[in-house]
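Handout, section 4.2: multi-component inputs.
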Amino acid sequence: DIQMTQSPSSLSASVGDRVTITCQATYDITNSLNWYHQKPGTAPKLLIYDASNLETGVPSRFSGGGSGTDFTLTISSLQPEDFGTYFCQHYDNIPRYTFGQGTKLEIK
Amino acid sequence: QAHLVQSGAEFKRPGSSVRVSCKASRDTFSSSTISWVRQAPGQGLEWMGRIIPVLNRPNYAQKFQGRVTFTADEPARTLYMELTSLRSEDTAVYFCARIPNYHFGMDVWGQGTTIIVSS
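Output:
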């Protein structure tokens, strides 16, 4: 089974910082990768689908990149509301969805 | 506007079953797939499977095969997730989420249903 590994597991950054989270797959998944943001006590929110497509309504400071086995989620200028946990997710046509373990982002 | 509204929290004994409902808006029920995802306390997200509501056709994650059942009630526009033989490790928040017909991200989520399994 595929494994999705995120790094770092946690990080602390300041408002205005550029933040990058990575997600690595155990084998080539082309661009079958989504990103989510979850705040405590709420449902996850879709940010990016198919590795690099910004979901409608998501601020343009979020961007996704990569293909194959290595992917990134970048926040160009961190805002206070961006705290929480970020998850990557792979999908295939079996169908099967596999989440990364999450990256907890704290605002300094 | 697309939305999903889930049933309320439940407390269950080990060995029992639970059924969670997820009521969908009209466009969501008719033109998408619904996935079920759970999150144990302080843990990550775990995909349980999906259902195509208009076809009432489910697919289950291997881990839950034989213990979970997804159904769809088209007149009521409501999806159901039943989990049997509950154990303490099933304590979690259970979400339903929409996968639209033009990409494979989960773009609309229910508010979540807390299920606590304890003796």
